[in-house]
Design a protein that fits this description.
about 250 residues; alpha/beta; TIM Barrel; eight-stranded parallel sheet; 12 helices; Aldolase_TIM; Triosephosphate_isomerase_AS; Triosephosphate_isomerase; isomerase; glycolysis
């Protein structure tokens, strides 16, 4: 079912000690200031921190453990890689897939991501599947065609039952780490388009029930306006997720 959700992607930041301190601050602030607001929170630290941070999160609470990536195979001779089954075994619930940095720096394409989706779902985990266009694509007025291709090739091969487990994150690549942010109207326009594509690929009910996050330099100052848009259900947060006060204020924006 569609829900309000805020996910913090720490990327390759924080030492182990700093990460434990940050998540302790966040859990305390959320408990004191957010309470039973119904907002689901996901924290996605680097792989080495997952088990320890997961132990700090209250079982059954509204803060959940997520990972930033996984391999498409269940096991094998893939040195340095981590499988979805491994993530599940240490308490991970969500996995980010197809982040723009993975697509750009590690050349992950739609075909590979479709395999990763299957692996994540087979392990009983929930994917946060990222789509988004570059500045060149937007300026060429090809945003919608580009997003449609990402969705069709990477995501829409799933069955209805599998798709029910998916959260989508729209990342305008030109607004990640640049300080630029899509206007609330630009975000709403793209989120509505994604929902329309879901309705075409599946049905109106699936479109209505899919959580779609905004993931382009959302912060404590602009989150309220972004999240007020009818098709924006929350955020995939980068830099602001590394500051407990900023991250908590974003959660409170609902």
């Amino acid at each position: 079912m569609r829900k309000n959700l805020v996910a913090g992607n720490w990327k390759m930041n924080m030492t182990y000690q700093d990460g434990l301190a940050l998540v302790s601050e966040i859990t305390n602030m959320v408990a004191d200031e957010v309470g039973g607001s119904g907002v689901e929170v996901v924290i996605c630290p680097p792989f080495p921190f997952l088990h320890s941070i997961g132990k700090l999160l209250t079982a059954g609470g509204n803060i959940h453990l997520g990972a930033q990536n996984c391999h498409q195979k269940e096991s094998g001779a893939f040195t340095g890689e981590v499988s979805a089954k491994m993530l599940q075994s240490v308490g991970v619930e969500y996995v980010i897939l197809g982040h723009s940095e993975r697509r750009q720096y590690f050349h992950e394409d739609n075909e590979l991501l479709s395999q990763k989706l299957k692996a994540v779902l087979a392990a009983g985990l929930k994917p946060i599947f990222c789509v988004g266009e570059s500045l060149e694509t937007r300026e060429a007025d090809e945003t919608f065609a580009y997003l449609e291709k990402q969705l069709k090739e990477g995501l829409f091969h799933l069955s209805n039952e599998e798709f029910d487990q998916v959260t989508i994150a729209y990342e305008p690549i030109w607004a990640i780490g640049t300080g630029k942010t899509a206007t609330s109207q630009q975000a709403q326009e793209v989120h509505a388009f994604i929902r329309e594509q879901i309705a075409r690929a599946y049905d109106a009910e699936a479109a209505l029930n899919t959580t779609i996050l905004y993931g382009g330099s959302a912060n404590a100052q602009n989150a309220r306006e972004l999240f007020s848009q009818p098709d924006v259900d929350g955020g995939l947060i980068g830099g602001a997720a590394l500051k407990s006060r900023d991250f908590t204020e974003i959660i409170k924006s609902f």
